[in-house]
Write a structure and sequence with these properties.
Number of helices: 1
Number of strands: 9
Strand content: over 45%
Shape: globular
């Protein structure tokens, strides 16, 4: 006895309907900006909230939080366009490495009121790539990646500057 499912045509129609109504045109954007972070100064934008109890070269177990500036340029007097707010626990026993979860919150320009959520591994050496896993405002449903390079670190106040390129599909 052959069994015929009368739901197959209906299911195919529903899948087709869902597939065609969910489609939308996505925009690809490239943003270029600089993150400015200050340690150990009266205007610190990053602090360690939990120090590691282990003596290891990687700061394993420490946790830092930050509310850094996003600027158009690498100089401290360039236009402020937003904030980088997040948390960074030390995750390596062998080298200084963090698992960074941050939001780029834009407060000026075309993306004012929008944000990007970024997660990934960070070191102070070389180029770092992280995933964009979401966004708000003009970046709602965003995905993509960031590439950053550290430019300046050091001095008594330790001012760190990172150059960012963000490639976003939204």
């Amino acid at each position: 006895m052959a069994y015929y499912c009368s739901f197959k045509p209906l299911l195919l129609f529903l899948f087709f309907l869902i597939a065609t109504t969910q489609g939308r045109d996505f925009i690809t954007s490239h943003l270029h900006f600089f993150l400015h972070e200050n340690y150990n100064s009266p205007n610190a934008t990053s602090i360690t909230v939990i120090n590691s109890t282990n003596s290891n070269p990687g700061d394993f177990g420490s946790i830092g939080i930050f509310d850094d500036e996003l600027r158009e340029g690498s100089t401290v007097d360039s236009k402020l366009i937003g904030r980088a707010q997040g948390i960074a626990p030390g995750v390596s026993l062998r080298q200084t490495t963090w698992l960074v979860l941050l939001n780029f919150v834009f407060t000026e320009g075309e993306y004012n009121g929008s944000s990007l959520t970024v997660v990934g591994r960070a070191t102070l050496e070389g180029t770092t790539e992280r995933s964009i896993i979401g966004g708000t405002g003009k970046f709602r449903m965003a995905r993509g990646y960031t590439i950053n390079t550290f430019l300046i670190s050091g001095g008594p106040a330790i001012h760190l500057i990172a150059e960012y390129d963000a490639y976003i599909v939204h």
